[in-house]
Amino acid sequence: MRNWSQIYDTDAGALYQKQSQTVETAQRKQLVQQLETKFLNNYQVVTLYFKQAVHGIWNNVQDYKVAASLYTNQRYQDAWLSKD
């Protein structure tokens, strides 16, 4: 789980851990709803959508994989340029 907003809340973290370990569906749903209510009441800005990025790749760039996130796969350790 990624925390892009850098929000740290120990009570919410405990609720998340508890719901992730709960097997009973009804109880887990109740815990998730408590977690959602806690966050919506305390942090009114919620990210609902990430714009898809457009990547232009030249034909001579080899072994580069476009990552699902803008913030990952930025090392290019496996990418190389062909002479074509």
Q: Can you describe what's shown?
A:
This protein is mainly alpha-helical. The chain has a domain at 10-42. 35% of the residues lie in helices and 5% in strands. The chain has 2 helices and 2 strands. The chain has a two-stranded antiparallel ribbon. It starts with 9 loop residues before the first helix and ends with a strand. 0% of the residues are buried.
Compact description:
By secondary structure, the chain is mainly alpha-helical.
Describe how the helices and strands are arranged.
Layout: H1 10-20, H2 25-42, E1 61-62, E2 80-81
Antiparallel strand pairs: 1-2
Helix pairs in contact: 1-2
Notable features of this structure?
mainly alpha
Q: Secondary-structure element order, as H and E?
A: HHEE
Instruction: Count the E strands.
Output: 2
Residue stretches low in confidence (pLDDT < 50, at least 5 long) are none
Structural class: mainly alpha
Helix content: 25-40%
The average pLDDT is 82
Major β-sheet profile: 2 strands, antiparallel
General shape:
elongated
Strand residue percentage: under 5%
Q: Major sheet: order of its strands?
A: 1-2
Instruction: Quickly count the helices.
Output: 2
Radius of gyration: 20 Å
Assembly annotation: single chain
